[in-house]
């Protein structure tokens, strides 16, 4: 992945759309296309407002959620589907994802396709590279350069004198590998027509540049893993300069025994994005905004 500038928290917030007070309401979205206004998407992105109202004490408990009112040209937005796999080795995670796919993804994809909103599939490199719709795009200079010599290679691989720092081998890891080896894109989410499939952040960026896409609507799994940290995920693409909006009803995370009752990992990942420069909305908001 191309090196991206590192921003400290203050710089990041200063350059985010929240800090800048970005609002697209009333922006130039009525470009002429054969005498008719270009189709638009009207959505209400949610974010965490760090500021407090006048007269309120500066306390965390006095901060809260706020919504914006955006009108976006459909041609400048895309729905990015992250790791929407046919299975998962954790049965309850798989069950939650399957329910979301059936109840949320199916109508969402139908509505986006009908409205002409581009859909981009990012199912992880092994699934993408083997797909007939693999975009096979790369930016000039996107090949990573030689790795820095620090930390030393033996430390990174936990070899030699660093073997004692390895995580213990899991005896059931072969079972997980067997599931992973058989993963495909979920059959209800298979690409239609020429919808591109990307394997890397560079490929997603190249598709967006080619199509003039600026706004990325994210749906997929897992909220606290791939949605956040893939090189085509929310944080990396936000750092590239795109506006990122997660569809919070179209995702679920991998929970622990402690977090499962409240879905704390899923909700925490959504809140993290809303707190630090990104947004969330729902599939219902998108479908209503396309109609």
UniProtKB/TrEMBL annotation:
Residues 78-258 form the Isochorismatase-like domain. Residues 139-174 are annotated as: Disordered. SUPFAM superfamilies: Isochorismatase-like hydrolases. Pfam families: Isochorismatase. PROSITE patterns: TAT. Coiled coil: none annotated. This is Isochorismatase family protein. It comes from Caulifigura coniformis. The lineage of its organism: Bacteria, Pseudomonadati, Planctomycetota, Planctomycetia, Planctomycetales.
